[in-house]
Fold this protein.
Amino acid sequence: KNGTVKKTSLEEYTKTIRKTGISCLKLREGDILADATLVNDEDIVIVTKNGMGIRFKSSEVAASGRATIGIKGISLKEGDSVIKLVPIRDTTDDIAVFTITGLGKRMSISELPAQKRSGKGVAIVKDAELADAIMVNDNDMVLAVGVSNSICISASEITKATKNAVGTQIIKGTRLQGVSKV
């Protein structure tokens, strides 16, 4: 959650099988694992709770062993934290972001310029706390899960907007916990 990113070969996890699991990383005091995903050599976007996003090449992160800490992926302002790491597998997809109050929007990935890792990134939502982010296209279905209710909608129903917009209401009456493609 504190902006560190790490890449480890999948083989490091599949060659040792224990019922109790195996260590996957070292954490600095006060840090927790915000997200984990599989990547190849595509660009990735780190998204923060306070609406910042940084896009850079995953190749900027050298593979390291399981028991390592990693390197800085994004420089965070005080009070901010990482919520998601999104791989860009298809550059024609849009990035969809969702606030804890149930607002959502899609924006072109071209609104996030590629940078070097460890920068501050750019604002992708103003004055809102983000709950989640995913890559979508018009053919995807999105499940938005709240504390008390959920909704499944077509990604084409999520308003396309610029990085300065907050978005439109996707789910009402609940604190949004997360979203996924179904």
Q: What stands out?
A: DSSP finds one helix and 13 strands in the chain. The mean pLDDT is 95.
